[in-house]
């Protein structure tokens, strides 16, 4: 049992699970008096050379005095941390606070000596780097600002640990020892190093799950049927390239379906990289222990009965994760649908999908098993479906995502050369700050398309997530700022993803439309306008158009500098001169191939053969002679529902237009099957053309591609957070500290609010209290007429529509009359709290707000003031800190933005001043996390300048920023 030591209680919050460089996990925790035997055992397994490097002399064993010293800590001036796997130490680190003379000291001394020892068998796994991050965070918490370390010159590995950490360092050499000194405050370089290590480690941990050399299915039944036996059959039928084992306690046979069978994973002679666990939840702990002791690297737990089943199941799930991580294993699940990797040298189908999807360039992540089935089914039909484009590189269905989450999989896909597009169905985001950061980095190199379920309610049972106060519209806007392509349905998810997988990004919003149906062309034109694109007049080729006509006009459109993308519309061939599907597909493909820099989409009506022919143009679908099971065992058969697991979402069936062999119109000749329409196969590097059954779907996908392309161009040259010489950051910090000394959380009064904002160059127009008519007149005379009289009562504040504001009062008579009217209408002055304010120049009333959300971080919001904007929810949002580019786009992204730019002949307002105000507010909140909310309402933006007429600020002690601390795995 871990207990407290000399001075402080055991700091349980220092415990953490971390992912190491090779993808395995380790537990980091404080060393206590109960660890004496573990420490001795650990030291005995360290080589003499490593001991020499640690103590600068031969040191074969620890004395009793050494053991006492290294296990008794006060957790303030003396701290020791250990990295453990399977409960045993694999590395240790400690610091001792020292004074200026180098002797042991206490606070306020702010320097400490630090030393590491890593077992030789675990060197090179990044253990020391992880321990350094954690011991540095502990030291900062205890008021230590600098570390000093003495290292022998030959100990190059440990010197590299310190020098690569990214901290500002000073190095000296004396008496044959290298002395390193470095500050512990995070720097841009140290944060970048930490995040690069995080990316490599988490990507490697997912790679171990998706590309194992051997797989054991634990719980494979002796008779056909059941979850375990189904997964075993799916792995076998997919042609898994590694070694496959079946595990069942009751097995007596040596094989199950031709797969070697064993009673326990312990009985398997060779290594097991991945175990698929399909036993009842009560038996899982024993299975995890056996896997851990055998050296299994990861688990896919398809067993149900965990957090989705209630509090008891949640406790069971937490213990499952704790046990697995203790042995260095990561988990997908529990209640998972499984994982798939279509790479030819892997061919892993460790899932409940009976058919291996076609190999392709799309990475697919789904928290829900049922949605995973629906998505796989759609992509499975790409040889003759709606879009007929491509298949899957890897698929992960995380179930309750107790351990491996969407963040981890994004880390893997970011550098995966086999994945060009990422599609994600999310029902919850466990760490929105990290997701946004990873999404921004990933979207800069490959598209990331997300549909979010449970948008308007609580997360599904089994998903432990951080509470957020932000509405879905705000979260969506923040994700778009990070480059995420946000769509609303899984149909749109697939449509957008398949376009992005095989077509280039458009250079702009100009769209050429051509086809053999005038009506379909007009529908496409209208859809383009509705999505904010700029369509050119449709070109009608008439129903008599031949394949050569399509080729010629498409080539002309692609060659036109005024065109950024082309939508081809096509209706069924009815006349003798009309092209058949194969001829039309080849005409479109060859024309598109001549201009590979512009995307081409097809809108078709009941043309199954055309979709198949288009997809066959360099399709990643199996061709003739393909050995894959999907090509020979009914590839058009969609995956069936799992025998158990998540059934919360119904499987959405593809539209009837997408069936593989749609019925031909009575007047049309029978169409050839896809295989008959493709002869010979085109070159493998040909570009695929996506086909859609409706103009709206094609145009919506194209519009998302246009917006994403624009984001990519802007992200290549990100804006800057400006510096303003008149900002008094230190003065604001002092004022905030003084205010918080009075109260931990408070809304500032008017005087303190104005003073704090003024330190950041934000001037609030003075408003003087007017508790009586005479005091109102005195205030007006001091401010100068004309004035405004308004109430500040909570129920009437900012509600000019209710009559609580009187404007342009030119003299005392008008002011007294207005005062009387207000008090007669709404009550006495003590209830109305009236104020007098000098009139601001006429302009457009706007709102500027910030909020610090515990899950998503600080968000800056902007919109026009008034009930219309509030009713429509017309607010735009950006993450803080906002750049100059963010501020400009924020102002322009609301639907009512034309009112700021001279709508219907009105004078344009000073948007430069407005953008500067947004940036100053962003700086205030970013510089001082104690500022948890700011509201400027209204901000009147005039043709020249602006006036802030009302302001409120709320302060509170900031929550801990876990995204700035050492690397840790989340605990749900």
In short:
It is built from 29 helices and 39 strands.
Compute the gyration radius: what is it? 33 Å
Oligomer state equals single chain
Total beta-strand segments: 39
Please state the structural category. alpha/beta
Number of helices: 29
* Main β-sheet description: 8 strands, mixed
Q: Give the amount of beta strand, in percent.
A: 15-25%
C-alpha geometry: flat
- First-last Cα distance: 23 Å
Uncertain runs are: 1-6, 383-389, 617-685
Arithmetic mean pLDDT: 85
Strand order of the main beta sheet, please? 1-2-3-4-5-6-8-7
Helix content: 25-40%
State the main characteristics.
single chain, 972 residues, 7-stranded mixed β-sheet, alpha/beta, 8-stranded mixed β-sheet, disordered N terminus, 39 strands
How is this fold's topology laid out?
Layout: E1 16-19, E2 25-30, H1 36-44, H2 48-55, H3 64-71, E3 78-85, E4 88-98, E5 111-118, H4 127-141, E6 146-151, H5 156-163, E7 169-174, E8 177-183, H6 188-210, E9 214-218, H7 227-237, E10 243-247, E11 255-256, E12 259-262, E13 274-277, H8 284-294, E14 298-301, H9 311-326, E15 330-332, E16 338-341, E17 348-351, E18 359-366, H10 369-380, E19 392-397, H11 406-415, E20 421-426, H12 432-443, E21 448-452, H13 472-481, E22 485-487, H14 490-502, E23 510-515, H15 518-530, E24 534-535, E25 539-540, H16 547-559, E26 565-570, H17 581-594, E27 600-604, H18 608-616, H19 629-632, H20 674-677, E28 691-692, H21 695-716, H22 729-742, E29 745-747, H23 750-758, E30 767-769, H24 773-783, E31 787-791, E32 805-809, H25 812-826, H26 829-832, E33 834-838, E34 844-853, E35 857-864, H27 867-872, E36 875-879, H28 884-892, H29 911-927, E37 931-941, E38 946-948, E39 951-956
Parallel strand pairs: 5-6, 9-10, 9-13, 10-12, 13-14, 14-15, 18-19, 18-20, 20-21, 21-22, 23-24, 23-25, 23-26, 26-27, 27-28
Antiparallel strand pairs: 1-2, 2-3, 3-4, 4-5, 6-8, 7-8, 11-12, 16-17, 16-19, 29-39, 30-33, 31-32, 31-33, 34-35, 34-37, 35-36, 37-38, 37-39
């Amino acid at each position: 049992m871990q207990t407290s030591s000399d001075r402080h209680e055991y700091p349980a919050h220092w415990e953490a699970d971390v992912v190491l460089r090779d993808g395995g996990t380790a537990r980091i925790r404080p060393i206590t008096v109960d660890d004496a035997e573990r420490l001795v055992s650990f030291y005995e397994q360290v080589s003499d050379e490593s001991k020499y490097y640690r103590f600068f002399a031969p040191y074969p064993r620890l004395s009793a005095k050494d053991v006492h010293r290294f296990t008794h800590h006060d957790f303030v001036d003396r701290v020791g941390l250990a990295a453990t796997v399977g409960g045993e130490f694999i590395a240790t680190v400690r610091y001792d606070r020292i004074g200026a003379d180098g002797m042991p000291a206490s606070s306020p001394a702010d320097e400490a000596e630090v030393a590491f020892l890593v077992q030789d068998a675990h060197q090179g796994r990044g253990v020391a780097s992880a321990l350094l991050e954690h011991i540095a965070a502990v030291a900062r918490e205890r008021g230590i600002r600098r570390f000093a370390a003495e290292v022998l010159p030959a100990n190059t590995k440990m010197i590299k640990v310190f020098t690569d950490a990214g901290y500002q360092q000073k190095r000296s050499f004396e008496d044959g020892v290298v002395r390193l000194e470095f500050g512990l405050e995070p720097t841009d370089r140290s944060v970048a190093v930490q995040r690069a290590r995080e990316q490599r480690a988490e990507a490697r941990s997912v790679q171990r799950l998706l590309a194992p050399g051997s797989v054991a299915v634990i719980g494979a039944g002796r008779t056909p049927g059941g979850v375990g036996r189904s997964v075993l059959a799916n792995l076998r039928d997919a042609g898994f390239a590694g070694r496959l084992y079946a595990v069942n306690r009751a097995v007596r046979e040596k094989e199950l379906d031709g797969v070697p069978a064993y009673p326990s994973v312990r009985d398997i002679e060779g290594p097991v990289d991945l175990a698929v666990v399909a036993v009842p939840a009560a038996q899982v702990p024993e299975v995890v222990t056996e896997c851990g002791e055998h050296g299994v690297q990861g688990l896919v737990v398809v067993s149900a009965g965990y957090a989705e089943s209630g509090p008891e199941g949640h406790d069971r799930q937490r213990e499952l994760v704790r046990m697995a991580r203790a042995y260095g294993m990561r988990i997908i699940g529990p209640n998972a649908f499984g994982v798939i990797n279509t790479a030819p040298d892997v061919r892993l189908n460790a899932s409940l999908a009976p058919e291996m999807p076609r190999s392709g360039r799309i990475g697919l992540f789904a928290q829900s098993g049922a949605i995973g089935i629906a998505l796989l089914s759609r992509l499975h039909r790409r040889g003759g479906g709606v879009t007929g484009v491509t298949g899957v590189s890897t698929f992960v269905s995380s179930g309750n995502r107790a351990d491996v989450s969407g963040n981890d999989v994004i880390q893997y896909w970011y550098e995966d050369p086999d994945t060009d597009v990422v599609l994600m169905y999310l029902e919850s985001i466990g760490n929105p700050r990290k997701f946004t950061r990873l999404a921004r980095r990933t979207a800069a190199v490959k598209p990331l398309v997300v549909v979010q379920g449970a948008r308007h309610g609580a997360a599904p049972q089994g998903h432990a997530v951080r509470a957020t106060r932000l509405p879905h519209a705000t979260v969506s806007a923040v994700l778009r700022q990070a480059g995420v392509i946000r769509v609303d349905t899984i149909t749109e998810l697939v449509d957008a993803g398949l376009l992005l997988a095989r077509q280039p990004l458009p250079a702009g919003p100009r769209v050429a439309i051509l086809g053999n149906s005038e009506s379909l062309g007009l529908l496409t034109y209208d859809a383009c306008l509705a999505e904010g694109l700029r369509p050119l007049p449709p070109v009608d080729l008439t129903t008599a158009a031949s394949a050569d006509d399509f080729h010629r006009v498409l080539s002309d459109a692609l060659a036109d500098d005024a065109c950024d993308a082309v939508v081809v519309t096509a209706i069924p061939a009815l006349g003798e001169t009309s092209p058949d599907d194969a001829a039309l597909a080849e005409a479109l493909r060859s024309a598109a191939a001549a201009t590979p820099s512009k995307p081409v989409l097809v809108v078709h009506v009941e043309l199954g053969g055309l979709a198949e022919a288009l997809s066959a143009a360099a399709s990643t679908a199996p061709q003739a002679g393909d050995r894959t099971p999907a090509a020979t065992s009914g590839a058009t058969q969609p995956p069936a529902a799992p025998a158990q697991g998540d059934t919360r979402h119904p499987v959405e069936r593809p539209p009837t237009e997408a069936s593989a062999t749609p019925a031909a119109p009575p007047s049309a000749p029978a169409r050839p099957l896809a295989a008959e329409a493709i002869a010979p196969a085109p070159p493998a590097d040909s570009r695929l053309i996506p086909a859609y059954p409706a103009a709206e779907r094609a145009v919506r996908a194209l519009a998302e591609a246009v917006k994403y392309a624009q984001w990519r161009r802007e992200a290549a040259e990100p804006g800057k957070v400006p510096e303003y010489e008149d900002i008094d950051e230190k003065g604001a910090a002092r004022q905030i500290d003084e205010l918080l000394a009075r109260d931990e959380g408070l809304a500032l009064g008017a005087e303190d609010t104005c003073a704090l904002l003024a330190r950041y160059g934000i001037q609030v127009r003075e408003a003087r209290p007017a508790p009586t008519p005479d005091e109102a007149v005195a205030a007006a005379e001091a401010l100068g007429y004309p004035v405004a009289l308004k109430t500040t009562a909570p129920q009437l504040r900012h509600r000019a529509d209710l009559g609580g504001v009187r404007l342009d009062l030119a003299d005392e008579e008008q002011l007294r009359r207005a005062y009387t009217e207000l008090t007669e209408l709404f009550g006495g002055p003590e209830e109305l709290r009236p104020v007098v304010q000098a009139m601001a120049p006429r302009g457009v009333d706007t709102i500027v707000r910030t909020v610090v959300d515990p899950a998503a971080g600080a968000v800056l919001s902007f919109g026009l003031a008034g009930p219309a904007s509030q009713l429509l929810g017309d607010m735009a949002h950006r993450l803080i800190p906002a750049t100059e580019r963010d501020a400009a786009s924020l102002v322009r992204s609301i639907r009512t933005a034309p009112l700021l730019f001279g709508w219907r002949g009105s004078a344009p307002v000073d948007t430069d001043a407005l953008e500067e105000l947004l940036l100053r507010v962003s700086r205030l909140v970013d510089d001082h996390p104690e500022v948890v909310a700011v509201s400027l309402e209204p901000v009147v933006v005039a043709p020249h300048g602006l006036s802030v007429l009302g302001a409120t600020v709320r302060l509170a002690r900031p929550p801990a920023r876990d995204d700035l601390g050492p690397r840790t795995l989340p605990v749900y």
